[in-house]
Amino acid sequence: MKILIIRRDNIGDLILTTPLIASLAEKFNVKIDVLVNTYNQSVLENNPHIGRIHIYSKLHHRKHGQSALSVIMRRIKTYIDIRFARYDVAIIAREGFTKRQLHWAKISGAKRTIAFGNDASGSITDAIGKTQDKRHIVELLADLAKPLGAYSEPGPLELYVSEDELTSIAQKIAAPQDIPVYGLQISARKPLQQWQAEKFVELAHRISQREKCHFLLFWSPGSADNKEHPGDDEKAQRIMSACKDISITPVATKNLRELMAAMTLCDQILTSDGGALHIAAGVGVPVVAMFGNSDAWFWGPWGVPHETLEAPDRNVNLLSVDAVDERFIQLRRRVLAAE
């Protein structure tokens, strides 16, 4: 059984697909090939269930100095590699297929194509109808194994950080070993998911006054005015300037692997919905997650102890420090009670 999973979406989307990948690999005792993007492929490194990784490069994601021609040539190579791999099954691992995903399934020449969709194309041999039930996306994706007779209850998200990566980031950060380490992840792509810098500052001071602890500050690197890859360097600097009186380390991660490794050092993490949320859950860290214009029941933390806050008017800016602090305390108590 040769299986190709098509998941050309965001970082969090790919992480949320890892339970499906694991269940198929274990059921058929094979490694699963995947089609992913250049910017999310690194989350699959060291995953024992992954076979070949086919890379799709988007022109607007090419690196500095990389020509458009080189991106197009790499894309052609991916076409050829997928076509000649001779897959038995192509799975569009998405809550609803698009023409682009279907295009790649056709290129694969797979005998069977599995996807969600009530009005599925004739090219999809195994269409799974959508339901109105409120189910987490991980539970939904697990249904894609049903046409193969391989359904199982989904396990945790799977991210694999090597000992070398852990050692390297631990030496770089040098966080205290004898007190709790709390992560504050301050970035979110959508404006309605962004909590204000001054609220992170107030929360950090409240927690540090309540107990002896250390904070790691995470953010998307780059300046806010970078049109291609806007970041939160300025927001992080404002927070650090206002937190000189508490124990806190800024963690300027250069890539996803460093972020994964650094988050494993935390006892608990606060973040808005987004890729970083699923990275935290993927490395097994309890999470307090803030939701604005996204649904917690569908995108919430999977497989780890967590608390979720759904903001008034679907705007994280409207969440109070009191509300977030209360959930932070509740989660910490629950985790300690379970140890």
Account of the protein in words:
The model has no long low-confidence stretch (mean pLDDT 93). Helix 7 (197-210) crosses helix 12 (321-338). Helices cover 36% and strands 17% of the residues. It has 339 residues and is an alpha/beta fold. A six-stranded parallel sheet has the order 3-2-1-4-5-6, with helices on both faces. The protein has a six-stranded parallel sheet with strand order 9-8-7-10-11-12, sandwiched between helices. The two termini are 42 Å apart. It has helices at residues 11-15, 18-28, 68-83, 99-108, 137-142, 163-173, 197-210, 233-242, 256-263, 275-282, 296-299, 321-338, and strands spanning 3-6, 32-37, 50-56, 89-92, 112-116, 126-128, 181-185, 214-218, 248-251, 268-272, 287-291, 306-310. It has two domains: 3-148, 3-Layer(aba) Sandwich (Rossmann fold); 163-338, 3-Layer(aba) Sandwich (Rossmann fold). The radius of gyration is 21 Å and the shape is globular.
Specify the overall morphology.
globular
Distance linking N and C termini: 42 Å
Number of helices: 12
Largest sheet: 6 strands, parallel
Point out poorly predicted stretches.
none
Order of helices and strands: EHHEEHEHEEHHEHEHEHEHEHEH
Fraction of helical residues: 25-40%
**Rg calc:** 21 Å
Strand content: 15-25%
- What is the CATH class name of the largest domain? Alpha Beta
Counted beta strands? 12
Task: Order the strands across the largest sheet as they lie in space.
Answer: 3-2-1-4-5-6
- Architecture of the largest domain, according to CATH? 3-Layer(aba) Sandwich
Mean residue pLDDT: 93
What is the CATH superfamily of the largest domain? Glycogen Phosphorylase B
CATH topology name of the largest domain = Rossmann fold
